[in-house]
Amino acid sequence: MNDYYQDLGVPRTATEEEIKRAYRKLARKLHPDVNPGKEAEEEFKKISQAYDVLSDPEKKRAFDLGADPYAMAGEGGFGQGFTFSDVMDAFFGAGAATSRGPRSRQQRGQDALVRLDIDLSAAVFGSDEELVVDTAAACGTCGGSGAQPGTGTSSCNVCNGRGEVQTVQRSFLGQVMTSRPCNACQGFGTVIQHPCFECSGQGRVRTRRTLKLRVPAGVDSGTRIQLTGEGEVGPGAGPAGDLYVEVAVRPHSIYTRRGDDLHCQVELPMTAAALGTTLQLWTFDGERELVVSPGTQPAETLTMRSLGVTHLRGSGRGDLIVHTNIQTPTHLTPEQEDLLRQLATLRGEERPAGKLAPMEKGFMGKLRDAFKTR
To answer: Minimal CA–CA distance to 311: which of 198, 204, 183, 219?
Structure first.
């Protein structure tokens, strides 16, 4: 039996990736299209067989244990090559009665998940984004067949293309016929004699591509957008799975989102809160007027309708909620102090008694930055 590790020039501790690289290197050197001649052809067949064994976990395990990797006999049980599952097959009608035939090399690919970071403005109105993804795509060298160009697959001479083998064994139940996937072709019914050195017979390779994505208005962190058929291409260039894009909204320096409402804080001088004023506020819709009524109190909320986030499902938008933060003046000049004392006298507040009041937990403490008036 050949030493497949020696044929590929790798140690027995070689990883799957090291085995794949060694095979690709030798395949480019020895392929008949590049290096014609009987000797090179035989060497190419030898490394192809070595890669077929060492890239398959079951065959590699059998070879490492000193067994023939293409042997079909099972391991101990109720007789030589007879296992407990064979007994269950006999009882419940499995085995030959459930012959499935060769399985397709084409299999559906796995779904993929990527993250997309967007600004809060994109969540409010929606946006067009470019998404760079690394997924498996059909191999351009072999077109997904897994075989070197100019070659193909051949019928397995062990199972004669059926993809499975049947054995008749004697046990305490009598003679039992069982069916098992063919170890020589892994149940495909065909064998790739010359695997593609680009994809190593898988029919797919890793590739990076750019997708255009329309992010709908109203998305929030954790929202997932499904792109059908944009996931991993399956083995044998099988149908692609789906791509799921999970949205993450970046924190904003001014606005905080709660549901579909936006919250911010505005700082008002004591005089503006007492007398009332009109402010020009920047919003995602541009400049808007905010009317502050006379006598506005600290932590009071002012609502600006339909200036929040667009509803993801349904029509309309949330509101913009403005929280007031009243500033008490400090570092007064003598003239300013005199004016305030006059005001206190007029209001009878020279020595206000004051009173106890319950504590209130407002929204102000949760906001990061103050919204400065213009």
So the answer is: 219
Question: How far apart (Å, rounded) are the C-alpha atoms in residues 115 and 97?
Answer: 48
- Token pair 């083998």 is at which residue? 165
The label of the residue with tokens 């000049």 reads 333
With respect to residue 328, please indicate whether it lies within any of the assigned structural domains: yes
Token output for 321: 């909620």
Residue where a domain terminates, one of 71, 97, 126 = 71
Domain harbouring 278, CATH code: 2.60.260.20
Domain-embedded: residue 277: yes
What's phi and psi for 78, nearest 5 deg?
A: -95, 10
Q: How many domains does the chain have?
A: 2
Kindly state whether residue 34 falls inside one of the protein's structural domains: yes
Contacts of 66 (CB under 8 A, 6+ apart): none
Q: Give the CB-side neighbour count of residue 205, counting CA atoms within 13 A.
A: 17
Domain that holds residue 22: 1-71
The pTM (predicted TM-score) of the whole model is 0.65
CA 184, 190, 194, 196 torsion-angle sign = negative
Dihedral sign computed on CA atoms, order 346, 350, 356, 359:
positive
Question: What is the block-wise mean pLDDT of the chain (374 residues), using blocks of 10 residues?
Answer: 85 88 84 73 84 85 75 41 46 46 88 96 96 93 91 90 80 66 90 92 92 96 96 92 96 96 96 95 96 95 97 94 94 93 88 67 47 41
For residue 55, what is the domain's CATH number? 1.10.287.110
Treating both helix axes as pointing N-terminal to C-terminal, what angle do 38-54 and 16-30 enclose, rounded to 10 degrees? 170
What is the per-residue pLDDT across 76-110, written as a single tens digit (0 to 9) for each?
334 344 444 444 444 444 443 445 678 888 899 99
DSSP character at residue 87 = H
Q: What is the pLDDT of residue 33?
A: 66
Q: What pLDDT score was predicted for residue 69?
A: 76
Domain boundary among 48, 71, 94: 71
- The answer to whether position 182 is within a domain reads no
DSSP 149-180: TT--EEE-TTTTTSSEEEEEEEETTEEEEEEE
